[in-house]
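Internal tracking record. Fields below are filled automatically when a chain is submitted to the structure queue. Please do not edit lines marked as system-generated. If the sequence contains nonstandard residues, flag them in the REMARKS field before resubmitting.
Queue: standard
Priority: normal
Entity type: single polypeptide chain
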Amino acid sequence: MLGLLVGAVIGGAAVWFWRDGLAAKLDEKTRTLREKAADRLEAMERQADGLLDRAKPRIASTLRASREAIRPAQPGPMETQDPEGSRLHAI
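SYSTEM-GENERATED OUTPUT FOLLOWS
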């Protein structure tokens, strides 16, 4: 138990003594890691922009086709409608 306590005190003193050096080293190492992460996020952003640019026309055409598929048909020149709007037989 005494050894654990002495080790903790010595370890704490070492960290306190070299804290500036340790902080600078950690900042240097994490700076590189943060730069790599930022570069990867930028690449993913460009890739997502490209995918969205390619998907936009396909989505628009699908929506147009869906809209036309569910739109009620207009009566032709030979058909009439009753007052409620339902289609009657051809004349």
